[in-house]
Every structure is written in C-alpha cells, then in structure tokens.
Amino acid sequence: MSKEKPPQQTGTLSLEHLMAGLGPAVLKSIRAPFSIISPDCRVLWINKAMAYIHGFEEEETALGKVCHEIFNNRSEPCLDCPVQAVLTTHRTYVTEQWTILPSGEKRWGEVRGYPVRNDDREIVAVIVMVMDITSRVESIRQHEKYTAYLSGRLSEAMNPDREIQLGEGEVSIHVELSRRETEILRLVTEGYTNHQISELLSISSNTVKTHVNNIFNKLGVNDRTQAAVLATRHKLV
C-alpha cells in the first residue's frame, strides 16, 4: 500500500512564509535612512540611520508617534513633507532637502517617497528613503560660484585688444583674445587640464584643445607654462 505524498506548498504560500521570516531582517539591512509612515503620519518603522538624523539613539522611541510632532515639533505636517506629497499625487515623490545632524554638520539628501498599496490599490503606507547627495550639491554650487566669478570678471570693462612688450621692449605683439579664449586662458593659468576645462565649461576636449592652440599662436608661445607666465605678467586674465 503506497503512502500518500504530503501536499506541496504553493509558490505564493512559500513566498509569504519567506517574507514573514525575512521582512524585519531585510528592513534592518538597509543602510540608507529609511522609514515607513502610515497615512495618518504615524511612524510604523524606522531604521537606525533615520533615527540618528532626527536625534534619536533608539529606533523604538519613534514607533507609533506622529512623525511631524516627534521629528520636527510641529502640530501639522511639514510644508515639504514627502508623505503628504505621495498621498496627494498617488505617485512616487522625489525632492532635495538639507538638515543639520546632531553632530552640527549640514547634509543634503535626496528624499524619496514611495506609495505602498493594498490589493485594492489604496495607499496604506509611504516608504521614505534618504540618499546622501551632499558631495554632489557642493560640487554643483562650486561650479556655479566659479561660473559667476568668471562671468563677473569677463563683464568688466576691459579692452580685449592688448599690446604686449617682449624682452626690453624691442618687440611688441598685438593680442586679441575672444571671451572664450580669455576664459580658457584663465583656467590654464590656474593649472586646469584640457579635460578639466571641458567638464567645467561643458564643451568637448577637442574644442578646448583648439582654443588652447589658438591662444598659443596669438601669444607666440609653445606651452602652457609660457602662456600662464605671459598672461599673469601682462594681466591678460
């Protein structure tokens, strides 16, 4: 008499059991600041990184609390709240925000809000995750400041036609640089490579190389060092 085989578990049941066991472990393994917020703004889950941003040593301190009350000491949701944005638009929401950490350091983050839906497509929670973008923001701002600096210097009243005296004054050359050439000569003088100049000015390396060669020809020099010395000595930049 043959024995009956035990019924096999369905893929769905196995997956549910797997997630029931792995769910907390998966959430705890996320290193980026991460939280799950209910539609009524209560903290359902928060990891250690997100707790640290808001000044909590233990994650459990925030569980069940209203997020804007416990995080920002507000009676109403924050104006730039990613949870409210997701609940209003029913879509993923991404914004950039900065905060001051308990250490006093200012950090920028890309804040992402993701809707969590039930079988009826109703939003039952919002996942909030923060990606650190401080380095990117600082790089962009440095670029903007330098661009503004160059624009200011180039807009100064300056005659682009210059006469340079060489040697003891026996030889003079007439130099006429375009705005772009003056801009690139300034960067060459400051030690930037062609590749760095192309990234800073958003032009190709070949275009930079062409401008540099034109500058050399106009100044009568053979290399970047000579061009830099001549530009500095005669205040071409």
Strand order of the largest sheet: 2-1-5-4-3
Oligomer: single chain
Task: Give the full name of the CATH homologous superfamily of the largest domain.
Answer: PAS domain
Instruction: Give the CA-CA distance, first to last residue.
Output: 99 Å
How do the SSEs run, as a string of H and E? HEEHHHEEEHEEHHHH
Q: Summarize the amount of helix as a percent range.
A: 40-55%
- Mean pLDDT across residues: 80
Low-confidence stretches: 7-15, 156-160, 165-172
Shape: elongated
Number of domains: 2
List how many beta strands DSSP finds: 7
Class by alpha and beta content: alpha+beta
Report the sheet with the most strands, covering strand number, pairing sense and barrel closure. Answer: 5 strands, antiparallel
Residue share in β-strands: 15-25%
CATH fold type of the largest domain: Beta-Lactamase
Alpha plus pi helix count? 9
Gyration radius from CA atoms, angstroms: 30 Å
Report the CATH architecture of the largest domain.
2-Layer Sandwich
CATH class of the largest domain: Alpha Beta
